[in-house]
């Protein structure tokens, strides 16, 4: 008995998941771990660097074809922040950056065409575009400088409070939950 062919949704979902697993393995040496389906995080004392993927090319959730087109976003989250979602406050893979860096962030999930190049370029984009940005704002004083910071004003205030030793445990727990960070069991 023949098995039925997978639907486009299943093929695209499986292809995207494979790309995420491969990206996870290759970004781990930089301190990132996968904490949600399409989030990778690296925690610091008062902040979390994160990478987020968004799959383009769907219509009401169903893929229009077998193409997997990934948009990459970077962000920094202050652990003491009260904002109710992960603010995508960093660089992202817009057309200008992807053309300038010759990044190819798509592949065909059915044929596998350009899969390896896509994963290579996802990692290269994170290293060449994300890492310098994260390093630029690693120092909390630079991150908290309203003239330089990518953070919203209330996030800067949350960082200032944390630096004064006034972090709220509930805010930190909410930030970790938003980003899918689980603490090791004691």
Features:
6 helices; 20% strand; globular; two-stranded antiparallel sheet
Question: If you had to describe this structure to a student in words, what would you say it looks like?
Answer:
This protein is an alpha+beta fold. Helix content is 40%, strand content 20%. The chain has 6 helices and 7 strands. The strands form 2 sheets. The protein has a 5-stranded antiparallel beta sheet. A two-stranded antiparallel sheet has the order 4-5. The longest helix is centred in the last third of the chain and has 22 residues, at 115-136.
Task: Give a brief outline of the structure.
With 186 residues, the chain is an alpha+beta fold. It is built from six helices and seven strands. The mean pLDDT is 93.
């Amino acid at each position: 008995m023949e098995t039925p062919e997978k639907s486009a949704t299943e093929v695209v979902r499986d292809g995207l998941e494979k790309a995420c697993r491969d990206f996870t393995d290759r970004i781990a040496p930089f301190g990132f771990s996968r904490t949600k389906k399409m989030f990778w995080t690296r925690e610091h004392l008062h902040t979390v660097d994160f990478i987020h993927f968004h799959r383009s090319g769907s219509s009401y959730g169903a893929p229009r074809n077998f193409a997997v087109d990934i948009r990459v976003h970077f962000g920094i989250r202050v652990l003491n922040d009260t904002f109710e979602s992960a603010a995508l406050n960093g660089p992202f893979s817009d057309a200008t950056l992807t053309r300038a860096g010759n990044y190819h962030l798509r592949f065909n999930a059915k044929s596998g065409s350009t899969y390896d190049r896509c994963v290579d370029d996802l990692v290269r984009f994170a290293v060449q575009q994300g890492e310098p940005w994260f390093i630029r704002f690693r120092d909390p004083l630079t991150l908290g400088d309203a003239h330089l910071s990518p953070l919203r004003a209330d996030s800067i205030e949350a960082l200032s409070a944390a630096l004064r030793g006034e972090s709220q445990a509930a805010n930190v727990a909410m930030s970790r939950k938003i980003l899918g960070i689980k603490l090791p069991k004691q």
